[in-house]
Amino acid sequence: MGQLRRTPLYPLYEKQGAKTIDFGGWDLPVQFSSILKEHEAVRTQAGLFDVSHMGEFTVKGEGSLAFLQQLLTNDISKLEDGQALYALMCYTDGGVVDDLLVYRLAEHDYMLVVNASNIDKDFEWLQKHVEDGVDLVNVSEEMSLIALQGPLAARIISKVCDAPVGALGSYRFMQDVPIGESVALVSRTGYTGEDGFEIYTDNESVLKIWEQLLITGAEDGLVAAGLGARDTLRFEARLPLYGQELSSTITPIEAGLGFFVKLDKGDFIGREVLQEQKLNGAPRKLVGIEMIDRGIPRSHYPVYDKDDRHIGEVTTGTQSPTLKTNIGLALVETAYSPLGSEVYVEIRGKRLKAVVIKAPFYVREKK
């Protein structure tokens, strides 16, 4: 087995009591104190995540907009400088290459932020379609990313930063923001269902910014948080994880992400299949389920109907730290997607009853 990759923040983990795991070839913290404590901190105060394993690509040049429009499902022409959006990149059959964020830094100048496990695959896919007038560069190795998330995130970041980042709207960002002696791109984005910021900077500056935020945010209850809480937080907010809610065999329409598929923008890869599914319905649908019988639904557990017919599988499931109930997301045949439908999850050889409920399971109160 090869050496696990480490982010620039790895040397600070031990000091903060991190327990690390192999996450797609990376040695990353699953927790610092406990998943429950970190989850609770992000829902009520704030948490700080190292997500430097994510990938970043720059796309520049006269042809960059047309290139991105052809490759992505969302309408990139709607972006203004200083604005980001969520999009999906699909194969011709509608399956998903990856889900990602697109940042418009300036005219003909974009940054894509992709999932860590998909960096090489995504870059190859983009390169395969690149045309004259497009300069595509993988800058993942030079960039670090931390996420400050939670209801007190704006208060905390405003203490370390003179720029008015607290006034940023959702999916807006500022470049060259001074934080201490460092500079960063700061965006009002995140993957937890809470308010928050993602901070992109170089590999040296990230160490100083991480420590500065933890020291400054301590009085507001800020804690370092790991992948465990990141997963339970995004799950409660029904934010998809590639490899579970999305994959090369699951379309954005099946995953309930039709809003991010803009059919009226012109042609793009996968459009034909996605148009068909949008107009006539997809064969499967991602739904929320709550266990009636005792048991926790986990990823890839099979789902059946009352007549023992296999109708789908769980994509993610856990005991929800916020709701204290056993819930899951499941991709099932569309006939079983209405609220209140009874389904059966196979857990350790037993078929246990569950019911389809509304998702997201958690929506933060907007102030």
Description:
The chain is globular and about 65 Å long. The chain contains 8 helices and 19 strands. A hairpin with a 5-residue loop joins strand 5 and strand 6. Helix 2 packs across helix 7 and helix 5 packs across helix 6. The protein is of the alpha+beta class and 367 residues long. The strands form 4 sheets. It has a 6-stranded mixed sheet with strand order 10-11-12-9-3-13.
Give a brief outline of the structure.
This protein has 367 residues and is α+β, with helices and mostly antiparallel strands.
Provide keyphrases for this structure.
6-stranded antiparallel beta barrel; 8 helices; 19 strands
Summarize the SSE layout with pairings.
Elements: H1 10-13, E1 19-23, E2 26-31, H2 35-44, E3 46-50, E4 55-60, H3 64-71, E5 83-90, E6 96-106, E7 109-114, H4 119-129, E8 135-138, E9 143-149, H5 153-160, E10 173-179, E11 182-187, E12 196-202, H6 205-217, E13 222-225, H7 227-236, H8 271-280, E14 284-291, E15 302-304, E16 310-319, E17 326-333, E18 342-347, E19 350-357
Parallel strand pairs: 3-13
Antiparallel strand pairs: 1-2, 3-9, 4-7, 4-8, 5-6, 6-7, 9-12, 10-11, 11-12, 14-17, 14-19, 15-16, 15-18, 16-17, 18-19
